[in-house]
Specification:
By secondary structure, the protein is of the alpha/beta class. Helices cover about 25% and strands about 30% of the residues. About 10% of the residues have low confidence.
C-alpha cells in the first residue's frame, strides 16, 4: 500500500513538474500573440501582397486566333499541324528567353494566378508559335518577368517549343492601361508576332494600374501548315 501511494505521489509530482512550464509557455505565447498581432498582421498582408500580386491578365474569353496560319514562305521549314500535340491547360510547352536580360523561364498554357506562380503563361485563345497569329504571354514583374524592364528595341526573343525553335525581334515597348491593350495585341493579326506583358511600375508593390508591353515580330522558326 505504501509503495502504491508513493508511486501515485511521484506521478503527481512529475505531472506538476511538467505541467507548470507547459502552462507558462502557453500563457507567454498567448500574450505575445495578443501584443504582437497588430505588428505581425500588416507584415503578413505585405508578404501576401508581394507573393500574390494581381495577375496581369485580360478577360478570359478564348478567341481561337491560333487558327490564322502563316503564309507560305520560300526557304522556311514547314511542318504539319497534324504532327503537333498542342498543350493542355496549365501544361508547360515552351521555354522563353530574351537577349540582354535575365528573362529565362518556362511557358505554360493559361495565365491564371496558379500558373503564373511557376511559369510565364500564355493567354488562352491567343496564337501559338508558328501558327501565324498574335501570341500573348504574361508573367509577374516580381518573378519571371522581373528583368523585362531591361529589354531593348532590336532584342531577340527566343521561344523553344515542343515542335520547333522560334525567334522574334522586339519592335515596340509601351506602357498602357489594361483597357488599351489592343494597341499592341491584335487577335486577328495576319502576321505572326509575340506580345509579352507584365504589371507596371516594376518597383511598385501590390495592385498595379498599368501594364508594360513588349511587342516582337516573327523572325524565324518552322511554319505550321494548318490547312494541309
Amino acid at each position: 500500500m505504501v509503495s502504491q501511494s508513493r508511486k501515485r505521489k511521484s506521478l503527481t509530482e512529475l505531472l506538476a513538474f511538467l505541467g507548470v512550464p507547459i502552462a507558462f509557455l502557453v500563457i507567454i505565447y498567448l500574450i505575445a500573440y495578443i501584443v504582437g498581432n497588430p505588428v505581425i498582421a500588416p507584415l503578413q498582408a505585405i508578404t501576401s501582397m508581394i507573393l500574390q500580386e494581381d495577375s496581369p491578365r485580360f478577360d478570359t474569353a478564348a478567341e481561337d486566333s491560333y487558327l490564322t496560319g502563316l503564309v507560305t514562305k520560300p526557304g522556311v521549314e514547314h511542318i504539319k499541324a497534324s504532327g503537333i500535340t498542342l498543350p493542355k491547360y496549365g501544361e508547360k510547352y515552351a521555354h522563353l528567353s530574351i537577349e540582354g536580360t535575365d528573362v529565362n523561364c518556362d511557358v505554360a498554357l493559361g495565365d491564371s494566378n496558379d500558373i503564373l506562380r511557376y511559369s510565364a503563361g500564355q493567354y488562352l485563345g491567343s496564337s501559338y508559335p508558328g501558327f501565324g497569329g498574335s501570341i500573348l504571354m504574361a508573367a509577374h514583374k516580381t518573378t519571371h518577368f522581373m528583368d523585362l524592364k531591361n529589354v531593348q528595341i532590336g532584342s531577340v526573343i527566343t521561344v523553344s517549343t515542343t515542335w520547333g525553335l522560334y525567334t522574334y525581334t522586339v519592335e515596340d515597348i509601351q506602357v498602357l492601361d489594361p483597357a488599351d491593350y489592343r494597341q499592341v495585341y491584335d487577335p486577328a493579326a495576319t502576321e505572326e508576332n509575340l506580345v509579352l506583358y507584365t504589371c507596371y511600375p516594376f518597383n511598385m508593390l501590390g495592385f498595379s494600374k498599368q501594364r508594360f508591353f513588349v511587342k516582337a515580330s516573327y523572325t524565324s522558326g518552322p511554319i505550321v501548315d494548318i490547312y494541309e
